Every structure is written in C-alpha cells, then in structure tokens.
Amino acid sequence: MAETVLDYETEAAHYDRTRGGVPRAEAAAEAVLRLVPPGARTLLDLACGTGLVTERLARPGLRVYGADAAHAMVRVAAGRTPGRAVRADARRLPLPDASLDAVAAVWLLHLVPFAADVVAEAARVLRPGGVLVVTVDKDAAHDVGSDIDAVLRPYRAADAAFDRADLITGYAAAHGLDPAPGTRFTGHGQGNTPRDTARKLRAGYFASWFTGDPATTGTLAAALAALPDQDRRRPDPRYRLASFVRRG
To answer: Which tens digits make up the pLDDT trace of 34-85?
Structure first.
C-alpha cells in the first residue's frame, strides 16, 4: 500500500481545531521570538499553514510574512495577515538573495524528504547575521513515555526522521549557517488519547513515520483499544527549536 499522506488543502478547514489551537500557536510563536535577534526587521514563516502562529510572531519593528504550498492554507492565513501571506514552495521562494533577517519553519521539516533543500533556500534568502529557526526531532518529542508510546515506539524509526537534529545541523553548515542556542516549548492540546491515536493512524496523521500498512494499522489499533482510559489525554509533547545564524 502506498504511504498515506495528509491532504493539506482539505486539512485547512479544521487544522487549528485539531492541532491545539491558540494555546499551542502562542507557545510556538513566543519560543520562535526568543531566538530572533532584537534588531531583526523581517521574518518569513515557512509552511505558515492557517497563519495562527504567523499572526502571533508580530512585535514592534518586525515585519512578518507567511508562505505555504497549499492554496487553502494560504487563503486562511491571508485573512489573518492581510497582504503578507503567499503561496510558495519552500524550496523556491520568490525572494532575492540576502533579503530577510529571519526565517522560521515550525512543524515542517519532519514532513519533507527534501529538508536539505529547504535549509539551503532559507540560507539563500537570509542576510549575513540572519537567523533560521526550525523544529527538529518532532516525532521524538511526541514520545512522552506514556502507555500509548509503548505501543507505537517499535514502529517509529527515529533514525529515518527527516528532521533529525544532526541532519539539519549538517545541512545548515553546508550552506553557511552556524548553530546558535535553541529552546523548547509545549505542544498544548497535543497530548494523545488511545482512541484518538487509533483514529489518526487510520487517517494518515503519522505519515512521517508510519506507512499506513493495513495489517500493521489493525495490529496497532487493537493494541491501542486495549489500553485503559480511552479518552484520557496523556501528557503534551515538548517540541525542540534549533536556530542557526548566517555567516557574514
């Protein structure tokens, strides 16, 4: 069976409701801004989705833009950031070289096998001294040591993750980006329940590590159904943000 991948054109209609909404967006934006230099004047939010995080990245003196590859996502984001959301491939941004002070990519690199190209393009559009801020090791962050994780862990191939921190650091170094201090933030509302985890498996929400094989889906769903407290949320994940500075 082919890998099940979410259709982000249809996901736009309920994306915020199913992804932690405002609390998670506020936590992500606050964490990104901790890593953006005080003197930064322009920031691009890559894979901005519905713009829920993008609109919260605003601060005095900082002009924030959003870009996403899905038409439906950009339409929603444009309502939140009028005139500052565009449809664009993260590998081919419609921007000149050295034109931005900061680029953020939250919850993107774990989804794409071309993470190296995204990092290279971000480096191209950053000015010397500009900063790239990205989530890394996202799937690993969702393993909070719960009983759900004990069921899923044997199927998670951590060494195959597209956003492994060591891989992203290597891509960054190859394109003139040096490591800088990072931070972490809580994925509010992202703690899973056994029942909802089984539903997400069937719907393709875990495409970054699960191929959607029917036999395995059935096995995992049965194991999840056997867990107690089917509708009790387990702890929220703590996401990791890495940052890199463009060499002068």
So the answer is: 999 999 999 999 999 999 999 999 999 999 999 999 999 999 999 999 999 9
Distances (CA, A) of 219 to 63, 80, 198, 222, 226: 49, 42, 10, 5, 11
Per domain, the residue ranges of the chain are 8-142+161-190+237-246
For residues 132 and 246, what is the distance between their CA atoms, to the nearest angstrom? 8
Q: Is the pLDDT of residue 2 over 50?
A: no
pLDDT tens digit string along 163-192? 999 999 999 999 999 999 999 999 999 999
pLDDT of the residue at 11: 61
CATH topology for 8-142+161-190+237-246 is: Rossmann fold (3.40.50)
Between CA 73 and CA 156, with CA 54 as vertex, the angle to 5 degrees is: 70
Which is it for strands 126-136 and 238-246: parallel, antiparallel or unpaired? antiparallel
Query: What does the alpha-carbon distance between residue 86 and residue 7 come to, in Å, rounded to a whole number?
Result: 19
